[in-house]
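Reviewer comment 2.1 asked that we show a complete input and output for one of the modelled complexes. We chose the 2-acetamido-2-deoxy-beta-D-glucopyranose case, as it is the one discussed in the main text.
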Amino acid sequence: MDILCPLGACLFNSLIAFLLLMMPKMALGQFSVIGPAGSIQISLGGEAELPCYLTPPQSAQHMEVLWLQSTQVAHLYRYGEDQLGDQARDYQGRTELLRDAVTSGNITLEILNVRLLDA
Ligand SMILES: *[C@@H]1O[C@H](CO)[C@@H](O)[C@H](O)[C@H]1NC(C)=O
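Response of the prediction step:
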């Protein structure tokens, strides 16, 4: 029987197959953002934790994380820092992303002194 695939070509073909197998994870860097499963009830004036994390777990340190309330920016994290200048007045001094958690893909937002407008 003839050798249909000389060694060089076989190697090349299997490299392509290998690259294609690797691509979904490597090139696209796919991940999901998982938010709260249901509604969260907090008393007025209390502290709310809105759970959110990346899966598979990975650092969000170099990502842009934007929490919106309707069209208002409740919290913006970009270039490794909170961008407080872009935050809506209603949320100034009331939000927090826990920095240690961001590096493990936990982008849970904490809202202090919960108001009706947070609903
Ligand atoms: C994310 O961080 C919050 C606040 O520290 C914590 O309560 C929560 O359990 C963490 N979630 C995950 C999935 O690690």
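The pocket of 2-acetamido-2-deoxy-beta-D-glucopyranose is lined by residues 49, 51, 53, 98, 101, 106, 108 (CB under 6 Å). We note this here for comparison with the apo prediction described in Section 3.2.
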